[in-house]
Amino acid sequence: MNAPIIAPSVLAADFANLQRDVEMLNESQADWIHIDIMDGMFVPNISFGLPVCEAINKHAKKPLDVHLMIAQPDRYLEDFRNAGAATITVHYEACDHLHRTLQVIKSLDCKAGVALNPHTNVQLLEDIICDIDMVCIMSVNPGFGGQKFIENTYKKVRQLKEIIAENDAKTLIEIDGGVNATNAPLLMEAGADVLVAGSFVFKSLDPLATIEELKRIG
């Protein structure tokens, strides 16, 4: 089992000291910086948009993992690429023509991700799994940080891992929501590759040590 890719979510950072927190992530063992974009329509919350993403990109030394929790994401794909996104993840539930959306993301020289809400079956991705660089399994209902982890996530990870293996795909599995030191080893055993952690990192007494703790799992 390889060490996980760690992608702390700046949704849980101190927005009044965002540059400071991004610079902390630069110095940490984190691999990516996860940015949750929410529009108040697809999810019942508004986080931040392009200007904040651009501001983070000015200071970030790690790749930006941009998670679009928004309706009609196709309208903004190029804008987020220009704002610094290395990976752009769209929601299965928000895309009428998912394959086309993935092709557009790839044409922008970004990695293409697909996020699944807790109620969405992983089998729905079987026909396009080879076109997906990363599947983000939501282990909480999207929209707010600090929620309780949904236990059915382990089952979904195992099912998705089987689909990836059966199709000889290179797709990574990312887990977003309620990740901590207790469930992280179980998620890795089930087949996860990327762990998104927000509150667990930024609300800890020592975020650098917390990221290091997660990185040692595997």
Could you give a short description of this structure?
With 218 residues, the protein is an alpha/beta fold. Helices cover 32% and strands 20% of the residues.
Report what the structure shows.
GO terms for molecular function: D-ribulose-phosphate 3-epimerase activity; metal ion binding. Pathway: Carbohydrate degradation. Belongs to the ribulose-phosphate 3-epimerase family. Keywords: Carbohydrate metabolism, Cobalt, Isomerase, Manganese, Metal-binding, Zinc. A divalent metal cation binds at residues 34, 36, 67, 176. Strand 7 (172-176), helix 6 (184-190) and strand 8 form a beta-alpha-beta unit. The protein has 8 helices and 8 strands; from the N terminus they run E-H-E-H-E-H-E-H-E-E-H-E-H-E-H-H. The radius of gyration is 16 Å and the shape is globular. By secondary structure, the protein is of the alpha/beta class. The protein has a single domain (5-215), classed as Aldolase class I (TIM Barrel, Alpha-Beta Barrel), CATH 3.20.20.70. It has helices at residues 18-27, 50-59, 77-82, 98-107, 153-166, 184-190, 199-202, 207-215; strands at residues 5-8, 33-38, 64-69, 85-91, 111-116, 134-138, 172-176, 194-197. Strands 1-8-7-6-5-4-3-2 form an 8-stranded parallel β-sheet. It starts with a strand and ends with a helix.
